[in-house]
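Deliverable D5.2: sample structural annotation.
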Amino acid sequence: MKISPLVSRPHHVHFYQNLIKELKEEGHEILLFHTGNELTRELLEPLGIDNKVFGRLIDRRVTKLVSSLYTKTSLLRGLKSFEPDLILSVNGLPPSPFNSLIDVPTVVFLDTEPHHMEEYLLFNYASNIVTPDCYHADVPKKKHLEHPSYHSLAYLHPNWFTPDKRVLKELDLEPKNYVVASFSKYIEKKIDLKRHPLRRRQIIDMVRDLGDHCKVFVDERSYVPSPLKDHCPDIHPSKYLDLLANAALVIGDHPVVSAEAGVLGTPWIYISNYSTFTLEDQELHYEIGSQVPTVEEGEELAEMILTGELELDVDKSRKKILRDKTDLTSWMLKLVKTLRSSYE
């Protein structure tokens, strides 16, 4: 088969990387499409995955509608040129509503609840919609497939990932003796700031306060206030997964990084008024993390964990997660084989 994974966020590279490797070994031809984001390029570079950029060189002065149309038509041209037999996407369907122009089965792996318009396009134009079993929003039954896993277990399951402690030597660190703080781009873009519990000043103060207990690294892949630039580790972006695996704690409002920490056995504190199905599941059933609505509560809880006042059995939590959840990449490989038969 000719298969085209679509990448709209840098972490989607991790989601696909093992699947693509296995599909190529089985003789499938892969061409990955992405938006040209610099971080995405850095993550793709060492993997040797054939890829093509779509929707770049947009003038910032043009309207969102024009930008969206250009991006979709650019992707459409690339797909028509490659002529894939199957399209894979994560949490969205970039070519919709123009999918009928290429008439290719499209599978969307969904773990966040889409907005109303995205939901309309997704549910109408995707061939199949695949969700974790902890996903409890409505999905059209005829198109819905379900797996007992998390998206992060496509690349962080022990079958595919073993933490590399060389990154600790590079940074002169001891395991579980530092904190990783990660803040989403939404803060930087000032989207809905009135309802967001984090502010720039609060982020700076929180990182500096936690620095009284241990070393604090700020995730350079996401939002970093300029006074905290010196808290960013000098490592390749792909090494952050190794850094997360050996951290004492992950804190911030980045849901993907929090979910990654959880499956690695690292406790997380998610400071936000909005939750995700994955984080809800990890907090409720595995007690590996906590969502709090304010910075003050997040900092107080972090200090309790770092000082030992609150003891968490993270090894037990991780073992339970790995016992209950499946290796998602292996599950996806079986899905592709099944879809190939049904689409032929």
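Annotation notes: The radius of gyration is 20 Å. Residues 2-157+327-343 form a domain with the Rossmann fold fold (CATH 3.40.50.2000).
The annotation will be released with the project's public dataset once the embargo ends.
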